Write the structure tokens for this entry.
Amino acid sequence: MSQHPDQVLSDLKSGKYAPVYFLQGEESFYIDQISDFIEDNCLPEAERGFNQTVMYGKDANMSQIITNARRFPMMAERQLVLVKEAKEIPDLNKEDGQKLLMDYLDNPVPSTVLVFAHKHKKVDGRKPLSKALNKKSLLVTTTKLRDYELPGWIEGYVKGKGLNINYPSVQMLADYIGTNLERLSNEIGKVAINLAEGEQITEDHIQKYVGINKDYNVFELQKAISSRDILKANRIVNYFSANIRAHSIIPMVALLYSYHTKLLLVHSAKDKSDSGLARAIGVPPFVVKEYKMAASHYALGKVIQNISHLREADLRSKGVNSGAIREEEVLKELVFKLMH
């Protein structure tokens, strides 16, 4: 049956192993987490030489995989057969290969842990194999995180490390790193290793251990624009322009576009209460006051106009109708247009 990755990892940490794991989907972070944990913990190190088989999809067909899975462990309780790059198995999408796997799912060897790491793709849901995997294996199907889900993921991941994190720090990580969960986990790990259990991650920690400047970042630029603090916005833009290679305009445009779409929702929402707006735009209630303030500074017509400015800047930053204008000039012009 299909399970959430967190539940699977929790079961694995308590020593519960299933006979067959099929890990599939677009988000490789969870697939790597689960398969790496199984590889590192399923067998004691002394038993791995005879009882741990790592195969690669492009080098193994289904018959070879199933033959290995049907072996019995040597002087051990179980054996592990781990298939990496499983989407490259040459006959996985062919009737013969699928039948071999379905036959094994009907009668898996109890002493074998068989793991398929099928990253970046899902098995065709219309095929009998998909239904068999859902019923007879431990199936994990991952999807890419959406931008609005990212703050919640960061908070949850940090709590899993035994730490807390304030909202500005969440936004800094989300804005600068985006939905690359592998990189996010690495950067959070850099901070976590330097803090004691129960401590709160702050902007100072992000600046010190991740390298994001707490005063000159896209999050602060967004706040300056929302409050129409022209002096602060120009100061940040000048800082970015002095080293434009390290502060590309493209992710800034994406963030500011997302922000302005939320302002559209604020203007059009029927429920103007803090809780109603929080639900509409997908932010914590205590952040809503910033959006309400921005909406008071930017009327609906101006928000729509700004989205047009952002679209134009995005195209120009990618070389469309840009002429000889440099990226830093596109950024300065954009911020001016957004605020005036």
